[in-house]
Amino acid sequence: MNKALRLLAVPTLALGALALSTAPAMAHDGDHSYQSTLGQLNGSTATGTVTVDVTGNTAHAVLKVSGLPATFKDAPYPHVQHIHVGAQGVCPAPSADKDGDGVVSTTEGAPFYGAIGTTLSVSGDTSPAAGLDLKLAGQGASYTVDRTFELNAETAAALHDGKAVVVVHGLDPATLSPAAQAAPSDLVPSLPLAATSPALCGTLTAGMAMPSGGADTGVATEADGTNTAGLALGGGLALVALAGGAYVVRRRATA
Asked: CA-to-CA distance for 255 and 248, rounded, in angstroms?
């Protein structure tokens, strides 16, 4: 391991306060697919999509990202990513930056997206405790995470409730304010703040069950104008309108 990776290879216990247990999930009520097009945080210019296809207690996740910082101290930049659970199920707004350094840190964002439910590692452990294991992180500017794993109860519940949030971490320090560039990580003080702060974020939304292997892109996003919740609401309003019309016809017939 080169000098840069030795610097970054910190104990994963640093995420203990943000990690949850990995108890097996109860049997899932049917097969489902969840998707998201990831939004940018903290001035990031990266893009990403994620799908999670659930069959029983097994999940197949495909995360594709590009445009992230490519190097850190002359080595490929390790980016960790997780499914966060247990909070509001949304991505933080810039106003979540409470210390005024221009960066929404991981802990500042936690009240919105929650703790780690599942680590989306490139290979190996997907437990919350593996959240900062950089040997399992995505490397460089663009990469794909394609994993099949057993859902734990917390992640399964968050997916079911529409409150599971995917967060990809790792910013380019050069894009941050001088105060943020000089600040240590809120998780691992030996690292810079940029290394562990969120760059991409998106809430996983339910769609139709997908074939094994998942889809390439997210759906139900503001970017493409499609929203499954909106479609469901529209269908409900249409039924209400039809019911109202039938009532008017019956009333006129009675009259």
From this structure: 11
The answer to whether residues 197 and 74 touch, using CB atoms and an 8 Å cutoff, is no
Q: How far apart are CA 132 and CA 243, in angstroms?
A: 54
Torsion of CA 229, 168, 103, 184, to 10 degrees: 150
Are 9 and 165 in contact by the 8 Å Cβ rule? The answer is no
- Per residue in 191-210, pLDDT tens? 999 999 999 999 999 985 43
Closest CA to 89 of 28, 139, 191, 157: 157
Contact between residue 71 and residue 161 where contact means Cβ atoms under 8 Å apart: no
Give the closest residue to 17 by CA, choosing from 136, 90, 151, 107: 107
16 beta partners: none
Q: What share of the chain is helix, strand, coil (3-state, %, to 5)?
A: 30, 30, 40
pTM value > 0.70: yes
Distance of alpha carbon 51 from alpha carbon 41, whole angstroms: 20
Q: pLDDT tens across 42-98, in order? A: 999 999 999 999 999 999 999 999 999 999 888 999 999 999 999 999 999 999 999
So what's the pLDDT on residue 71?
95
Q: How much is the average pLDDT of 116-126?
A: 96
